Amino acid sequence: MSPVTTRSSRSIDWPLLLLYLVLVGLGWVAVYAASYSPDAPPHPLTALSFSELMAFNWFKQLLWMGTAAVLIVILLVVDYKAYDTLAYVLYGGMIGLLLVTLVIARPIAGSRSWLEFGPVRLQPAEFAKFTTALAASRFMAGINLRNQNWRDQAVLAGLTLLPVALILASNETGQALVFAALLLAYFREGMSPIILLLLAAGGVILLLALLVPKVWLVSGFTVVLLGAFALNSRLWRHHLPLSLSAWVLVIGMVFGVDFFFNKVLQPHQRQRIEMLIDPGKDPLGKGWNVTQSKIALGSGGWFGKGFLNGTQTKFDFVPEQSTDFIFCTVGEEWGWAGCAVLIMLYLTLLWRILLVAERQKSVFGRTYGYCVASILFVHFTVNLGMTMGLMPVVGIPLPFFSYGGSSLWSFTILVFALVALDAHRKQDLLR
Question: Where in the cell is it found (predicted)?
Fold first, then answer.
């Protein structure tokens, strides 16, 4: 082994690697439990052919884990400077792949987002998060967002929104929403907090427009605005045009939400929002997924029913129980205690990634680290939120736990590209 390779291996963040291995291992256990059937006749593995084994999700997940291990080796061996120098090339290639997918992919569950290679299906939208994070980090390494240069911010917005538009066009709303996570990384690098506040305020206004009578909402906003003018007369002289523009924009959003809800959103997207607003509206129809999910989580009690002893998941009451709703298996079999341990593992992983990001010697490395943490945080938060009925069901997998090769590969690439950059961070001082 060469001295360079030895130094690099010693510089690998082993706690981060260990957290990854623990989560992937526990994820496989959860996939096995979710796909286990107590009524299936026992078969010794040696008596099953490869094609018969491929009928089991847990076996296919093992294969994805093996290929993920190969990916890790490649990511750590490749020249770490390639992540920076090839960022735009990889981004451009992924944009082209998203376009190809949009054209040639056959519809699956109403979405044109999967490329099929024989028995293998890959979802380019999963990998677009990695290439977009690289391109955005490369761009921000050459600018200073704190200077509030609107041209730079427009370019950054374009880099982020282009893959979002293509993913939305393929009818993958959940995957597109994840890109909003990158705003957290941009904020760390100096993007004005006003942008985040405006986006948050817009989201709150749209949500209130669905929950509160529009006349009340408009009246309340008008009273607040007039009250601000009454308390501070300088607003009349210096901020009247801006305030009136904000008032008109809010009125437009409030009364435009019906058009967006009824004309822009797909029927299944409207159903998800309706179920979030009123979960008990149709518990045996549109609300079945979330209703059964919450029953499974609650039935686990403090310490769960035990491994392979869940009833809601074993008898297929919970749909998509090995993918989007894998957390139900954890709650039912491991109980509140198991869920708490899993949440702590994820929080520890996020904390470790942020620590690794902050110790980078380059802006590119630090920004990319925050992109990774932000993407994982949004996936983790939204998946648990939709499982517990706190957020709309948008089909976002739980990192390292949900069954699927595309998600496991994409999260592995995100994390271990950062590990590779971190292993060589001291060399950045010499560049």
Answer: Membrane
Between helix 405-423 and helix 326-358 the angle, nearest 10°, is 20
For residues 135-150, b (16+ Cβ closer than 10 Å) or e, as one string? bbbbbbbebebeeeee
- Evaluate if residue 150 carries a pLDDT over 90: no
* Local structure of residue 144 (DSSP, 8 states): -
Closest CA to 113 of 58, 163, 54, 59: 163
Q: What is the sign, positive or negative, of the torsion defined by CA atoms of 359, 360, 363, 369?
A: negative
User: For residue 244, what are the β-bridge partners?
Assistant: none
SS3 133: helix
Whether 336 and 303 have beta carbons less than 8 Å apart is answered as: yes
Higher pLDDT, 215 or 24: 24
Dist. CA 163–CA 156, nearest whole Å: 12
What pLDDT digit, counting tens, does each position of 130-147 carry? 999 999 999 998 887 776
Q: Side-chain half-sphere of 395: how many Cα atoms within 13 Å?
A: 16
The contacts of residue 180 (CB under 8 Å, 6+ apart) are: 378
Cα-to-chain-centroid distance, residue 185: 14
Estimate to the nearest angstrom the gap between the alpha carbon of 206 and the chain centroid: 22
| Residues paired with 108 in a beta bridge | 111
| Tokens found for residue 321 | 């129980």
Its pTM stands at 0.85
pLDDT recorded at residue 98: 92
